[in-house]
Each structure stands twice: as structure tokens, then as C-alpha cells.
Design goal:
By secondary structure, the chain is an alpha/beta fold. It contains 11 helices and 13 strands. A hairpin with a 3-residue loop joins strand 4 and strand 5. Helix 3 runs antiparallel to helix 10.
Length: 346
Amino acid sequence: MQLFRFANPELLYLLLLLPVLVILFILEIYRRKRTIRRIGESKLVNDLLPELSPTRPVIKFITLMLAFSSAIVMLARPQFGSKIEDVKKQGVEVIIALDVSNSMLAEDIQPNRLTRAKQAISRLVDNLDNDKIGLIVFAGDAYTQIPVTTDYVSAKMFLSSINPDMVPKQGTAIGAAISLGARSFSPGEGKSKAMIIITDGENHEDDPVSAAEEASKAGIIIHTIGIGSGQGVPVPVVTGGKRDYLKDVDGNTVITRLDEEILKKVALSTNGNYVRANNSNIGLDEIYGEIRKMKKQELESTMYTEYNDQFQIFAAIALFFLILEFIIMDRKNRKLANIRLFKFKV
């Protein structure tokens, strides 16, 4: 199986220009028609301008857009991985456990707790080099979203799709996330293993401190990031297209508060650090700075190391449509119009 990728994926954003160009072209067609109507009746104008073609400009525009699209894909450099190698690097294994319970939608951290946490993780992944990273999501239960890997592109792709709906059982089972994370590291003694838990700390499901103590026996260091405010805020929800706040079974508005004490205890039990997030700094970079001080280990990973460019076909397509657009004339050709290759006199 080959791995497909773009060497310059940021250039694909140029495709967003296509709808803009389509709108401008439609406006130009409308302007031309309005100008013709000012000159006189459409039938009279058509008689006076028999070479005028209403369809040729549209065809030329479509071919030009196809050429433009193909050129953008060509510049983005589509590639297929052609060689797989087992690569050995010096680094550490890090698993991030991200709380995706409804309380993470609270907006005391702008735009909300979950979005800011995802943004911070995304920036962290951009700066990774040799380390392996895994991602666990949890609410009432914990699930592995990304096994430990050096495939940072896939990690960011899966990260973008995370939302509270992906975990059917609500709650905040921090202990379950710790236990799952402890089982998710690569097997072997003496390996540098670290977990980062990002949550508002409202634990309602289990005993996270006991789970952290068990993880510590396996040599796992757990760092915690508390995200939210201690004063408490409501949890916004959208019901029937209208914005409202989460209610409990009695109809009372649910207030979510950061529980720092439980997160400090979890970190302390494994000699880790606790950081409180705020609107200007989530604290993930600070935590990762501590993780970088850990003893590096030899990490093995399987990855594509050679990629073959496949832009040639898109270059040929772009050239074909450019030539076609050049050949098609804006107006009808009187001489060519008189040619009837398939019309015979009887």
C-alpha cells in the first residue's frame, strides 16, 4: 500500500479562489446582457451581430478554470510513497489524554475549553521531530484516538475531528484515561514514558489518583493541565437551532468548575507537574519542555522515506485545457460556419 500526500498542501487553499472567480464571471455575463439590452432588442442585436456567441465565453471560462485547478494541484506536488523503512530515532513517548465531555464546551477559555486545547495540541505536533505521540479522548469512558506514532500528519487529521459527540457516555473518567494510557505505551522496560492530561478536572466516574499511582509503578510520569475557571460557568448547547445552556434532570442550569485539587494530586503522585491554563497560555509547551528533559530512548517506527512526484499528469491536463481555451474563439467564425462535413446533397 502506498501513502499519498501533497508536498506543498498549503497551496491547495488557492482552490478557494474558484467560487470567487465563478461569481465574478456570472456578474460579467449579467453586465454584458444588460449592455446589449440597452442597445436594442435581443433579436435585432443578434441579427446585427451574427458572430456573437453566448456559449463560447462560458466554454472558454470552464476550460480556463479546469486549467487553473490542475495547475494548483500540480504546484501542490502530489506524491506517492514508494519505499518503507524501519527508522530508529532518539526520543520519548508521549500520550495526551484530552477531556471531551460537554463541560469542555464552556467558554471561560475562549473560544471554548476544547477548541483551545485542540489548537495547543496541534501547535505542539507541528514542533515534534523524533518523539512518538498518542492521543486518548475521554468523557464517561476512555478511547484511543491515535496509537503512539511518529505519523504527525495523521495525528493532526484525527485531532481536527474530535468533539464531545464521539464519546457516547458523558462524565469525566480521568482514571479510565490513565489506565488506558498506561496500556498504550510501547512494551519494554526503561523506556521514557509521559502522559499529559488536559481536563477541567470534574471527575465523576472513578479514582484517578489510584490509577496514577499504578501508572507510576510502571515508570510513567503524568503531567496535568487544568483548563477552566474555579468560579464556575454554564455550558452552552444548541437546541433546535437556538443557543441555550445545559440543564440537569431537574431543569437547573449546569455549572462547570475547574477542580484543581484532583489534578494536582494526580501529577504529584507520579512526580509530574500541574499547570493551570488561561486565555493567553494553555501550558502545553511548558509541560513539553519538562518532558524533553527526560532520558531519550531509541524509538523504532515504520514510515515512507521516499516519495515519487506525480505532478506531471496534472501539468499535462493544465496545458491541454490552456491550449483548448486558446483555440476556442470568442465569436463564431463565418468561414468555418459554412463548412458542413456531414451534410450531403441528394
